[in-house]
Amino acid sequence: MEKYLQHFNYDTFLQLVIIILSTIIIAQVVTFILAFIGKRIAKRTATDMDDKVIDSLKGPVFYTIVLTGIYMAMRILFFGDVIKNFTLPFFQTILIILWSVFLVRLIKILLYSFARTHRFKFVTIQTLPLFLNLSFVVIWAISVYIMFGVWGINMTAWLASAGVAGIAIGFAAKDTLANLISGVFILTDAPYKIGDWIVLDSGERGKVTSIGIRTTRMKNTDDMEVTVPNAVIGNATLTNESGGDTGKEYRVKIPFGVAYGSDIDKVERLVLDIADKNENALQKPEPRVRFRMFGASSLDYELLVRVESSVKKGITTHELNRAIYKTFEKEGIEIPFAKQDLYIKELPQKN
């Protein structure tokens, strides 16, 4: 190496700088032409997918040209073929990482476009996280394999060792594997999707923000993110408040009771009037009052309304409860409460 460095002088350094600057200029021109032609083609399409692909492609093309120019300059000016043993694998590794990142972004752009346009039936909003995670794993697995080959590492022995180690890891990481398998089933079966409000059997309630291979994340009503292992969700009974045939509407139930002997026609009329006047309660489907059962000390009712956002469930429940209480108090309708009568059979005798 030292004998090659002896040839390094000011003129050689100046040539290197000129070549690098020329390479950067060429890279800028190529990316500009690529962007110009790509934008002209993208204008003919109705979606913005082409624009996103072109924007993602400019970076890898630019750095590929620059790195290639630097490598060729160093090879010609300094080391000749000797550079292959020192820096060629390094430059190749950088390029592999650059293009792997581009492929991940490209797959993400394509999958999101397919999910929005329904071009492929199996690519939907529900299955999108599954394909994103699988493509991420496959691309980086192939990239790592190529990088091992670039550095001259024999993968045969590594793969054989991985097979033996995989058995041991499988036993040690059975909980993680259970989460991974449950994540695949959740993504394919789609009991909920991103944006849905779900309630776990533990009572935890929140909006689903991410569905991963290992965990599901949701933001609860306190605006805190809760991470739940997929194996827990896979074995739990959960309620999807956004499910059913009502689209994005959310259910609100207001249980209340009135005393025996109350005018139930009047009660139902008053409560429906309260729901009609509430600005958060939707009128389609219209609010309903249902007589549920004869309770121990009351006639048990439920007021059923829908709101357009789960965020409004709390304030709507508050407003309806206040209005029902004030209206019943004004109209003289009794809201019963549990009472117990104590009968004394016999007083203790005084000695």
Q: How would you characterize the overall build of this protein?
A:
The structure is a single chain. With 351 residues, this protein is an alpha+beta fold. It has 3 domains: 2-151; 154-243, SH3 type barrels (Roll), CATH 2.30.30.60; 250-331, Alpha-Beta Plaits (2-Layer Sandwich). Helix content is 55%, strand content 14%. It is built from 10 helices and 8 strands. The strands form 2 sheets. Strands 4-3-2-1-5 form a 5-stranded antiparallel β-sheet. Strands 6-8-7 form a 3-stranded antiparallel β-sheet, covered by helices on one side. Strand 7 (288-294) and strand 8 (299-307) form a beta hairpin. Helix 4 (88-117) packs antiparallel against helix 5 (128-150) and helix 9 packs across helix 10 (312-331). The radius of gyration is 34 Å and the shape is elongated.
Quickly describe the structure:
This protein is α+β, with helices and mostly antiparallel strands and 351 residues long.
Topology of this protein?
Elements: H1 2-5, H2 10-42, H3 49-79, H4 88-117, H5 128-150, H6 155-172, H7 174-189, E1 197-199, E2 205-211, E3 215-220, E4 225-229, H8 230-234, E5 239-240, E6 250-258, H9 264-277, E7 288-294, E8 299-307, H10 312-331
Antiparallel strand pairs: 1-2, 1-5, 2-3, 3-4, 6-8, 7-8
Helix pairs in contact: 2-3, 3-4, 4-5, 9-10
What form results from the Cα inertia axes? elongated
- Count of spatially separate domains: 3
Largest sheet report: 5 strands, antiparallel
Q: Whole-number average pLDDT?
A: 82
Distance between the termini: 116 Å
Q: Counting H and I runs of at least 4 residues, what is the number of helices? A: 10
How many whole angstroms does the radius of gyration measure? Answer: 34 Å
Pairing-aware structural class of the strands and helices?
alpha+beta
Beta-strand residue percentage: 5-15%
**Major sheet strand order:** 4-3-2-1-5
SSE arrangement, N to C = HHHHHHHEEEEHEEHEEH
Low-confidence stretches: none
Helix content: 55-70%
